[in-house]
Amino acid sequence: MKNDTVEANRQVARRLVKAVGEGDFPTVESLLHPDLDWWLNGIGHLNREQFLESIHMLASAKKGGFTITNTTAEEDRVAVEMHGRFEYEDGRVYENDYCELMTLRDGLVYRVHAFFDVNASAKVFPEAVK
Q1: How many CA atoms lie within 13 A of 114 on its CB side?
Q2: Any idea of the CA torsion for 90, 114, 39, 53, to the nearest 10 degrees?
Q3: Measuring CA to CA, which of 12, 54, 59, 122 is 20 to 30 A from 85?
Q4: Spatial strand order in the sheet of 93-105
Q5: Which of 31, 38, 16, 48 is nearest to 113 (CA)?
Q6: Taking a C-beta distance cutoff of 8 angstroms, is the pair 130, 42 a contact?
Q7: Confidence class of residue 127 from pLDDT cuts 50, 70 and 90?
Q8: Distance separating alpha carbons of residues 28 and 66, to the nearest angstrom
Q9: 30-67 pLDDT, tens per residue?
Q10: Which residues contact residue 8 at a Cβ distance below 8 angstroms, ignoring those fewer than 6 apart?
Q11: d(C-alpha 128, C-alpha 91), whole Å
Q12: How many CB atoms lie within 10 A of CB 83?
């Protein structure tokens, strides 16, 4: 795979993380493959529609987002390490560290394995974690 394609994949992954953190749903939707499979540890597999629904809880924060700390890209895969912090009107604060391994197809995010601290999520979103 050409270096420019690898770099383009890295930029798609970075744009997706930024858009999810900012609650920019049109951009998120534009970067997801129709056959998306997003796996979250502690939750399981989500299709495109389920994933889009799941990020509404982050978007409901009054303040927050993700800070990308590292990316690694090779062929059709991009690994993104990040820290998220979201503050809610009711005083809840959700903080977590993530590593997401993304596979792209046709320039869109097709498959993701997302790893994060399930206990930190369960404290703020007990209904979302199995």
Answers
A1: 25
A2: 30
A3: 12
A4: 44-46, 32-40, 108-116, 93-105, 77-87, 63-74
A5: 38
A6: yes
A7: confident
A8: 14
A9: 999 999 999 999 889 999 999 999 998 888 899 999 99
A10: 107
A11: 19
A12: 13
**CB contact at 8 A, 1 and 78:** no
Domain boundaries, the chain: 3-124
Is residue 85 classed exposed, middle or buried when 0-12, 13-18 and 19+ CB atoms within 10 A define those classes?
A: middle
Residue 105 zone, left/alpha/beta (φ > 0; ψ -120 to 50; rest): beta
User: For all residues of the chain together, what is the average pLDDT?
Assistant: 94
Please report the pLDDT score of residue 1 as a whole number: 67
Q: To which residue do tokens 């994949």 refer? A: 9
- For residue 68, CA distances in Å to 53, 81, 93, 127 come to 23, 6, 19, 27
E strands, 1-130, where? Answer: 32-40, 44-46, 63-74, 77-87, 93-105, 108-116
- Name the CATH code of domain 3-124 (choices 3.30.230.10, 3.10.450.50, 3.40.390.30, 3.30.420.10): 3.10.450.50
